[in-house]
Design goal:
Helix content of chain B: 40-55%
Strand order of the largest sheet of chain B: 1-3-2
Helix content of chain A: 25-40%
Strand content of chain A: 5-15%
Radius of gyration of chain A: 16 Å
Oligomer: heterodimer
Largest interface: A-B, 58 and 54 residues
Strand content of chain B: 5-15%
Distance between the termini of chain A: 25 Å
Shape of chain B: globular
Shape of chain A: globular
Largest sheet of chain B: 3 strands, mixed
Order of helices and strands of chain A: HHHHHEEEE
Structural class of chain B: alpha+beta
Mean pLDDT of chain A: 87
Low-confidence stretches of chain B: 146-154, 186-193
Radius of gyration of chain B: 16 Å
Number of domains of chain A: 1
Number of domains of chain B: 1
Chain lengths: ~190, ~190
């Protein structure tokens, strides 16, 4: 992220997501999947689910749980899920899901990176750059697997007008609490 | 920086604005290939190096730029650290290989970066003063925390201000760093479905 003051929860989320969508080898890749990269495994999972991984009710909190990218301490986790469930504008959720869905179908994209900046010029509290576009924004950036080589990289940049600490939802009063059968209520959120 | 600190209010005094303008001019003179931008209306207490639209940008947010505990030298160090992310050679951030890692950026700021800044703009960094000013900020609740972890999970000194300050005070800035502990940790993990 390149921040001066390290904020561990942001780092955990971004590092996990960038790793999950990277072109680095996946040590747990499925044998039948010919693409043994981390992103290849996400594409494989998407195929197994009929191409619906990023289009199921825009539930980004579930996606964050399944793909990694969740703070480890409970309070920060609740704040993060509250942001994903309740604070992100609908258009932003649609844009994030659409861009990731497009990446699933475009094998020329070798990795995805996630980042955020604070920006007072946007019209929503949060916005996917540019203007909640549903089209992947790509650049040639260093490969995670081989940093000496640049590869086509989809850049997901979240612009944040929101300019205060994330709210601290009380689990008892959370508007949209995790369902009991959802694993994100358990202690082992990242296996 | 969704989980960072925020300054309650950003009402800059004229003197601070003049200081920030002077620093900005010096950095634009010394490092013309970088794009420096003050975002004073954002209260987040931080600064950021990032590639935006192919430009190597440095964003200094109001919460940090206007923080009452910081002054000329600490602000200069912040600008240098962020410039170091773009210009320093060495280990990369594990989750953003376009940028130098934090320890390398610190080293570059206190060493080569401050020398280039002084040579090209005349601005001199007093590293001891900068660290004293930053210590006031870090000791006032901006120290990064890792809730849920009783012990440091990383050897990366950037995750603990005391280590970071000690390394800079101990004249380690010119020592080379060959590996990023954060990088080693992150690249160990595989699928977590």
């Amino acid at each position: 992220m390149g921040a001066f003051i390290n904020t561990p929860n942001d780092t955990i989320i971004i590092a996990a997501l960038n790793n999950r969508f990277s072109d680095a080898p996946d040590p747990n890749a499925v044998t039948a999947n010919p693409d043994k990269t981390m992103l290849g495994s996400v594409r494989w999972q998407d195929q197994q689910e009929g191409g619906l991984l990023f289009s199921r009710k825009l539930n980004l909190a579930r996606l964050a749980y399944r793909l990694g990218g969740v703070p480890t301490d409970p309070q920060s986790r609740r704040r993060w899920f509250f942001l994903l469930r309740r604070m992100l504008p609908h258009n932003t959720k649609v844009a994030i899901s659409a861009v990731l869905n497009a990446v699933m179908g475009d094998s020329s994209v070798k990795q995805v990176t996630f980042n955020l900046i604070h920006d007072s010029t946007i019209t929503y509290e949060f916005e996917l750059d540019p203007n909640n576009s549903n089209i992947p924004q790509t650049q040639n950036l260093p490969s995670t697997a081989n940093p000496k080589v640049n590869v086509k990289t989809c850049v997901l940049l979240l612009r944040c007008f929101y300019d205060e600490p994330l709210p601290d939802p009380n689990p008892a009063f959370e508007v949209d609490p995790p369902k009991a059968q959802n694993p994100e209520v358990g202690k082992d959120i990242i296996p | 920086m969704l989980f960072g600190g925020f300054l309650p209010d950003v009402n800059p005094a004229l003197e601070r604005l003049a200081l920030l303008d002077a620093i900005l001019i010096d950095f634009r003179t010394a490092f013309p290939d970088l794009y420096f931008e003050l975002r004073l209306d954002r209260r987040v207490i931080n600064a950021q190096a990032i590639l935006l639209n192919g430009k190597r940008c440095i964003l200094i947010y109001g919460g940090l730029a206007l923080h009452p505990m910081l002054a000329e030298n600490s602000l200069t160090f912040v600008f240098l650290h962020e410039a170091g992310h773009h210009l320093a050679v060495g280990p990369r951030l594990p989750f953003n290989l376009s940028l130098a890692c934090d320890c390398v950026a610190d080293n570059w700021a206190a060493g080569e970066g401050s020398e280039v800044l002084h040579r090209r703009s005349g601005r001199r960094l007093l590293i001891g003063t900068a660290l004293d000013e930053l210590a006031r900020l870090m000791n006032n609740g901006q120290e990064p925390e890792l809730p849920g972890h009783a012990e440091p999970i990383l050897n990366c000194r950037n995750h603990k201000w005391a280590f970071r300050k000690n390394a800079l005070e101990a004249a380690q800035p010119h020592a080379s760093i060959h590996t990023c502990e954060l990088f080693k940790r992150e690249t160990r993990h595989g699928s977590v479905y």
